[in-house]
């Protein structure tokens, strides 16, 4: 039985869709930037509550900045899904967390809260407020858990683990502080400031992760 001559070219299966993952990483970086800018513009041009309100109030029903806010949120949802597609095959659990975070982000943007985005235990929310709040919290939680998952995974490249560990080291205490402040203090400048720091950390981690993945693909020699 004759054998095919050795050509020095690896079979296509070994490449494993690396160009596609590189493209997904680049697109994820773009979506993170676009989404962050859109949400920031909506918050600044929105109700004008400074740090006393939630970020979601920029997208509340009747707000002039709601369309811009939702565009930004949907762009961030796309970024999470693209990051999931850009991860190495050994990080399927993390990809699943990011996919869940993407779905919850879409739900958060699609279901608008009422004025002030009231949440328990100090305010009386509507059903839409509860759905929006739960989706928003689940989206952030899934993203933070993805950081932890990568930081603990032996299958993650070292640079990816370092970025994830840095992100988790900042995001975990902030997430805990937001949860305690919501239950102990409620809506106000403390929760508003902590929420913005947590969201900025998540966005920074997403951008850094997408950059690391994209650079890693470019540095990998073609086989």
Mean pLDDT: 87
Secondary structure: number of strands? 0
**Share of β-strand residues:** under 5%
- Main beta-sheet strand count, sense and barrel state: none
Number of helices: 7
**Radius of gyration of CA atoms, rounded to a whole number:** 20 Å
Helix share, percent: 55-70%
Q: Would you give an account of this structure?
A:
Helices cover 70% and strands 0% of the residues. It has 223 residues and is mostly helical. It has one domain. α4 (92-110) runs antiparallel to α5. The radius of gyration is 20 Å and the shape is globular.
Keywords:
mainly alpha, 223 residues
Task: Provide the fold topology.
Blueprint (H helix, E strand, L loop, with lengths): L11 H4 L2 H28 L20 H21 L5 H19 L16 H26 L5 H27 L4 H31 L4
Helix pairs in contact: 2-3, 2-7, 3-4, 3-7, 4-5, 5-6, 6-7
In short:
The chain has 223 residues and is an all-alpha fold. The protein is 70% helix and 0% strand.
């Amino acid at each position: 039985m004759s054998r095919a001559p050795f050509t020095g070219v690896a079979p296509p299966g070994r490449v494993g869709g690396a160009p596609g993952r590189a493209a997904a990483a680049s697109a994820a970086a773009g979506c993170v930037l676009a989404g962050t800018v859109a949400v920031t513009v909506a918050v600044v041009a929105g109700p004008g509550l400074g740090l006393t309100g939630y970020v979601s109030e920029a997208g509340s029903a009747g707000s002039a900045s709601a369309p811009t806010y939702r565009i930004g949120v949907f762009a961030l949802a796309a970024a999470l899904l693209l990051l999931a597609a850009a991860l190495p095959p050994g990080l399927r659990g993390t990809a699943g967390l990011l996919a869940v975070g993407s779905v919850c982000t879409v739900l958060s943007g699609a279901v608008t809260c009422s004025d002030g985005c009231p949440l328990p235990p100090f305010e009386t929310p509507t059903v839409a407020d509860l759905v929006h709040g739960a989706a928003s919290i689940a989206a952030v939680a899934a993203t933070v858990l993805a950081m932890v998952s990568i930081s603990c995974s032996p299958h993650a490249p070292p640079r990816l683990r370092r970025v994830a560990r840095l992100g988790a080291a900042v995001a975990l205490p902030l997430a805990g502080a937001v949860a305690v402040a919501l239950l102990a203090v409620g809506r106000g400048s403390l929760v508003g400031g902590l929420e913005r720091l947590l969201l900025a950390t998540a966005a920074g981690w997403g951008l850094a992760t997408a950059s690391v993945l994209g650079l890693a693909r470019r540095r990998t020699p073609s086989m």
